[in-house]
Structures are given as C-alpha cells and as structure tokens.
Amino acid sequence: MVCDKSRGVGGRVASRRIEGAPFDHGAQFVTRRSAEFSKIVEDLLIEEVVIPWFGEAGKERYAGLPSMNQIAKTLAEGLDVKRGMRIENVRFCGDYWEVSSEAELVRSRSLLMTCPAPQALDLLKSEATEPSSCVLNTLSKIEYDKGIALMALLKEPFPVSDSGFLQYDDPEPIATVADTLKKRGLESPGVIIQSGPDFAERHFDSNPDTIIECLLDAYPRSKELKIVSTSLQKWRYAKRREHGISDSYSSDPSIMLWHAGDGYVAPKVEGAYLSGLRVAESVAAELELKLK
Ligand SMILES: Cc1cc2nc3c(=O)[nH]c(=O)nc-3n(C[C@H](O)[C@H](O)[C@H](O)COP(=O)(O)OP(=O)(O)OC[C@H]3O[C@@H](n4cnc5c(N)ncnc54)[C@H](O)[C@@H]3O)c2cc1C
Prior knowledge:
The protein is an alpha+beta fold. The chain folds into 2 domains: 15-77 and 144-240, Polyamine Oxidase, Chain A, domain 2 (Alpha-Beta Complex); 86-143 and 243-291, 3-Layer(bba) Sandwich (FAD/NAD(P)-binding domain), CATH 3.50.50. The protein has 8 helices and 17 strands. It has helices spanning 35-46, 69-75, 117-125, 133-141, 180-184, 197-203, 208-218, 269-291; strands spanning 2-4, 15-18, 21-24, 50-54, 61-64, 81-83, 89-92, 97-100, 105-108, 111-113, 144-154, 165-167, 174-179, 190-195, 227-240, 250-252, 257-259. A 5-stranded antiparallel β-sheet has the order 12-13-14-11-15. Strand 2 (15-18) and strand 3 form a beta hairpin. It starts with a strand and ends with a helix. Bound molecules: flavin-adenine dinucleotide. The site of flavin-adenine dinucleotide has 32 residues, from strand 1, strand 11, strand 15 and helix 8.
C-alpha cells in the first residue's frame, strides 16, 4: 500500500487548473537518458500521455498530456494508494512497522519512504528504535533548495522562445520561463516563471502578492504579458542539491527500512524513477529471503 499526504498522486510532478487551463507548477518535462526510463517514455508516447516538447537528439524533453500530472496518474494505475494520509509517526515494533496519520494507522512488514530526505529524517528521528546511523547519516547529507513557481494565465499568446522554454544560465532571480501554449498547443496562453533558489529562500515567507510582484519585476519582458489571473506555488523541497552520494537508495534491511527518490541517482523525475527501480529490487530480494 502507498500512503500519500496529497489528494492526488505525483508529488512534484504536479499540475493545477487556472480557469480551466492546465498549468504544471512542478516538473516541466521528463528526460529519457537511461534505457529503463526510455522504455517508460516509449510506452507513454504510445498511450499519448507524453509528447516530445524540445531538445536535440539524445536530450529530448517530453511534456505530459494533458498535463505533467497525467504521467504520475498513468504510472500509478492499479496501485493501492491511500490518498490524503499525512504520515506523522513511524514506529518499528520488532518485526513490523506502524505508520500513522492523525486518523489512521497502517501496519506493514517493511517500510519504504520516498518523501524528500529531510522529511524522512524528521519522521525517523522521532522513532524510538533508531535505524542504523548509516541511514541517518546518508539522509542528513541530502539537502534541497526551495523554489517558487508563478503561473500566469494570459489574454494573448506570449512567445517565450522558439521552443517555448527558456532557461537562464544564471538562475537568479528567475531560473526558467515556460510558455504553456507552445508546450502542447492545446491550452489557453500562459507562462510559468520559476524562481531561483536564492530568490525562493529570501521570499518564501513573504506575502503572496509581494512574491508575484517581485517575480514579475525580475522578468525583463513582464510588461508584454497581458495577465488575466495568477497563482503561486511554493516548494520547500524543490531541487535536490548536488552531493557525493553514489548509492541509488539507502536502507537498513535489519529493520526492513528503505528510503528512495530524487535524493539519489539524479535530482529529476528520471532519477527518482531509477532510484525507485533499484529499491524495488532490494525490497523484493529481502522479502524473498524472509519468506525462505
Ligand atoms: C518547480 C520544480 C520544477 C522541476 N522541474 C523539473 C523538470 O522539468 N524535469 C524533471 O525531471 N524534474 C523536475 N523537477 C524535480 C522533480 O519534480 C523531482 O525530482 C521528482 O518529482 C522527485 O520525485 P520523488 O518521488 O523523489 O519526490 P516527490 O515528487 O516530492 O514525492 C514525494 C511524495 O511524498 C509525499 N509525502 C511527503 N511527506 C509525506 C508524509 N509525511 N506523509 C505522506 N506522504 C508524504 C508527497 O505528497 C509526495 O507525493 C522539478 C521540481 C520542482 C519543484
């Protein structure tokens, strides 16, 4: 069983509608550098859940259809997902785990956590039976930058760039700008302006109107935008910082505990997927051993 605090699935592969138009306020695209994730992208292309967006051969970026979140919804089909369950406590009880939210408690032989490492660390630190210091050590080395995404629905199309995506070499105060119309050619005109980490750190607790004003001020072409309405998304754990960890996940098989996600392999959707694959192999092998 998968427990997720959100109403939907996908985490930072997230989308919302503004006056009916889909906006991706987390990941803008997926890549396919590895053979394993390439296979997933191939299947998603056949199912018309992704379309090629931009990028030269070998570095193509794919957008979800009708929104990025559809990728997560499709991959989660058939899974038993308990939505809206915010885990507040995890407890190892000798030969099983107890995981609880305010209202519910779930017991399981093994526990795989895939929330960002600082959140996993908080939950495990409050656990009386401490996992090995090796897991805690690894988790404490995985850090994230904050991020803020401004979505603006527009009255008229606004060409951001030939591809519809602009990435600044210097990511401050703005890291990227995406043109929602150019991305899929389906929705109403709009832009998504993503802040850099320093901007997000400075403004994270500012009033939303101030953040919107500052982000628009920082975008040199903002005067050209005919804005109908705006929406803001703040990410406390947006992008994982570089680190020297080469493992694909961390684990303590003696207490059947694993942690995976974009903290390992690469700080992007593809990296999180590959970490998930490797950890699944490890969990399956340990469960098989236990059954013998
Ligand atoms: C603004 C932004 C832009 C990005 N752009 C790109 C991009 O263009 N391309 C790309 O490849 N990557 C991009 N990324 C990064 C990408 O989104 C992540 O690397 C990837 O989604 C990480 O997946 P994950 O499963 O490891 O973590 P997450 O997606 O964060 O999933 C963690 C899940 O844990 C759940 N959770 C957390 N705490 C609890 C709790 N206590 N109880 C229950 N559930 C909990 C959350 O609800 C969430 O569903 C971007 C990220 C951001 C924020």
